[in-house]
């Protein structure tokens, strides 16, 4: 039997935390059952994950968000901050294709700024690894998550990191500049600073001017200490000299990229706006075609796409490994609650963790604890 | 009950703190033998002197076991994530000046700013297969600073002493450490990043916002703070 969200009301924990936890647990089990009924296999990744994988992926920032523990044999371990990474690892090592997985369990998030935010909560997820039709898989995940939230007072936001990535790749500038921008897609401030630098908008620091006024090898007089060797320093000085000779990113491309990042509309209007922008950034056209294919697939699954919000910059600050479709469901009437459900496409993550292999993948997670709290206030 | 004042238990920091209080007619002394960490307060009503490591004072203030404490801004901000809610700054004491800075080898003539550092971190990782290592004992402050400015592809390695030597020993590529004059840095062939100042620190008198006071203690505290400000 597919569970209906209306049942949440009959499960209400009457405001007491223990009761709410039990309710969230029951709800999580039911949601996982729904995902199983949709064709997913149940998986149960371990609580402890090797820290090295997560540090490699997220960098040192993850230490502020995940609990680290240690033992003498295995070294640093992290209490899982999410399920996606272990599920991808599991699939890449021995999964058959195509595959659909579901899971339910606690994730752990270290909190250093706000005591009121949960450091342990349930997630229920649905992940699809399928080469056949990415647009259809995107729509499948979104529609299935939306179905679990139907009748709840939530608003969906969507975006597509792939369009921004295509725009950067299509700029008429050097590969070095493009890869620097690509590396910081998820750090909007640094992305902005790089863009200003490459378009000649920011003033070059005196130290750089001085360095560029030199010629030849400069490392000779310095004591060569450290693992970064003089050859690496000289190579970067050369690269900086070559970069200084390159023209800035053209004004029309820069304006188009800025206009693209600011797009925030319902999907049909957003699509139209971005087609206009594609006149100056033709490289985004295939990504826009994919957006339209996805929109058609969502429509076919009964999603009202005409009313669905699209933000071209959505997901850039919080969703590091997503590189295509991204989405989140928010309770606008409850600004105190974090995102109720979220997800997206993470093809690059499978490449990163797949040691050579890769597969298109998309997934999403729900937070049953928030669903219970949300129903508690509206019923 | 009495108010508890925490002061660093040894060295220049302790002596300078004693001097600072004596200028305000409050005499702090160590009692007993040289090795015993006991102390006495003369010239202020109902105050106990607690001698302990400067590094432990932030934690004790946050736990409410000290009403007042002297320690560096760096230690308070490193150890107390919500320090503004846990302690109140009463007075900077004018000594123990130290800056938490980022320093790289002088050899890195291509690196002067955080922009450079970020670019080099990416290239270093591609070349060497691991993230660029920064030796420090100020993990949280350095991480928050680098997150805020958007530097990626680095890793923090713990160094509790002789941090400047880690680069030569190749256990780190650069350091984040406290410096007052920069002499140790130069002696170890390191240089400051132009925009790599993480925090300016000095010895500071803090009041715990957590520690409980009865009415007599509160009166003594108000009286003491008035005298210290004056």
Please, could you describe this protein's structure?
- The complex is a heterodimer of chains A (379) and B (230).
- Chain A is of the alpha+beta class.
- Chain A has a domain at 201-221 and 229-247.
- In chain A, α7 (175-183) packs antiparallel against α8 (188-198).
- Chain A has helices spanning 7-10, 17-37, 51-58, 84-94, 134-148, 161-169, 175-183, 188-198, 206-212, 230-244, 251-261, 267-277, 285-300, 347-353, 368-378; strands at 41-42, 48-50, 68-71, 75-79, 99-108, 120-129, 155-160, 264-266, 309-311, 325-330, 341-345, 361-366.
- Chain B is an alpha/beta fold and 230 residues long.
- Chain B has eight helices and twelve strands.
- Chain B has helices spanning 11-22, 57-63, 73-79, 83-86, 114-128, 139-149, 183-187, 215-229, and strands at residues 3-8, 27-31, 38-42, 47-52, 68-72, 87-92, 98-105, 132-136, 154-158, 174-179, 190-201, 203-208.
- A five-stranded mixed β-sheet of chain B has the order 4-1-5-12-6.
- Chain B is elongated and about 65 Å long.
- The relative contact order of chain B is 0.21.
- The model of chain B has no long low-confidence stretch (mean pLDDT 92).
- The A-B interface holds A 55-56, 59-61, 63-64, 112-113, 115, 180, 183-184, 187, 189-190, 193, 197, 205, 207-208, 211, 218-219, 222-228, 230, 232-233, 236-237, 240 and B 81-82, 105-110, 112-113, 115, 118-120, 122-124, 127-128, 131-132, 139-140, 143-144, 146-147, 149-156, 167-168, 170, 173-174, 189, 194.
């Amino acid at each position: 039997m597919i569970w209906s969200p209306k049942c949440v009301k009959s499960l209400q924990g009457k405001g007491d935390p223990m009761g709410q936890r039990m309710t969230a647990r029951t709800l999580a089990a039911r949601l996982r059952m729904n995902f199983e009924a949709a064709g997913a296999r149940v998986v149960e990744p371990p609580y402890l994950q090797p820290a090295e994988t997560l540090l490699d992926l997220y960098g040192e920032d993850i230490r502020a968000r995940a609990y680290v523990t240690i033992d003498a044999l295995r070294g640093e371990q992290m209490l899982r901050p999410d399920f996606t990474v272990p599920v991808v690892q599991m699939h890449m090592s021995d999964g058959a294709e195509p595959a659909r997985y579901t899971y339910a369990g606690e994730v752990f998030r270290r909190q250093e700024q706000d005591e009121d935010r949960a450091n342990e909560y349930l997630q229920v997820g649905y992940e699809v690894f399928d080469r056949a039709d990415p647009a259809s898989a995107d729509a499948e995940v979104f529609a299935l998550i939306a179905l679990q939230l139907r009748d709840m007072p939530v608003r969906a936001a969507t975006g597509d990191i792939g369009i921004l990535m295509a725009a950067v790749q299509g700029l008429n500038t050097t590969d070095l500049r493009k890869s620097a921008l690509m590396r910081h897609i998820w750090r909007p401030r640094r992305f902005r600073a790089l863009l200003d630098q490459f378009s000649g908008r920011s003033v070059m620091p005196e130290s750089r001017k001085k360095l560029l006024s030199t010629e030849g090898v400069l490392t000779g007089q310095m004591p060569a200490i450290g693992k970064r060797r003089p050859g690496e320093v000289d190579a970067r000085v050369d690269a900086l000299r070559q970069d200084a000779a390159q023209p800035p990113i053209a004004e029309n491309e820069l304006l188009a990229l800025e206009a693209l990042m600011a797009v925030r509309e319902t999907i049909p209007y957003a699509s139209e706006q971005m087609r206009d922008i594609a006149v100056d950034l033709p490289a985004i056209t295939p990504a826009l075609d994919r957006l339209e294919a996805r929109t058609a697939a969502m429509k076919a699954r009964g999603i009202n796409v005409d009313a669905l919000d699209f933000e071209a910059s959505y997901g850039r600050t919080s969703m590091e490994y997503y590189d295509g479709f991204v989405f989140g469901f928010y309770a606008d009437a409850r600004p105190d609650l974090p995102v109720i459900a979220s997800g997206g496409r993470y093809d690059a993550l499978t490449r990163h963790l797949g040691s050579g292999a890769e597969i298109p993948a998309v997934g999403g997670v729900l937070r049953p604890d928030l669903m219970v709290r949300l129903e508690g206030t509206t019923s | 009950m009495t108010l508890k004042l925490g002061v660093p238990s040894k060295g220049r920091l302790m002596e300078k703190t004693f001097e600072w209080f004596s200028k305000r007619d409050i005499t702090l002394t160590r009692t007993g033998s040289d090795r015993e960490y006991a102390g006495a307060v003369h010239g202020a009503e109902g105050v106990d002197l607690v001698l302990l490591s400067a590094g432990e004072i932030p934690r004790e203030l946050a736990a409410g076991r000290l009403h007042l404490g002297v320690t560096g801004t760096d230690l308070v901000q490193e150890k107390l994530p919500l320090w503004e809610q846990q302690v109140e700054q009463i007075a900077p004491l004018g000594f123990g000046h130290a800056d938490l800075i980022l320093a790289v080898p002088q050899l890195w003539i291509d690196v002067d700013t955080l922009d450079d550092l970020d670019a080099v971190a990416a290239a270093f990782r591609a070349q060497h297969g691991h993230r660029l290592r920064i030796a420090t004992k100020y993990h949280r402050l350095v991480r928050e600073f680098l997150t805020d400015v958007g530097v990626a592809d680095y890793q923090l390695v713990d160094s509790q002493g002789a941090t400047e030597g880690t680069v030569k020993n190749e256990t780190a590529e650069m350091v984040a450490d406290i410096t007052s004059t920069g002499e140790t840095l130069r002696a170890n062939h390191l240089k400051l990043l132009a925009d790599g100042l993480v925090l300016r620190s000095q010895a500071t008198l803090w009041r715990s916002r957590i520690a409980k006071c009865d009415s007599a203690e509160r009166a003594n505290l108000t009286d003491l703070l008035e005298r210290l400000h004056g």
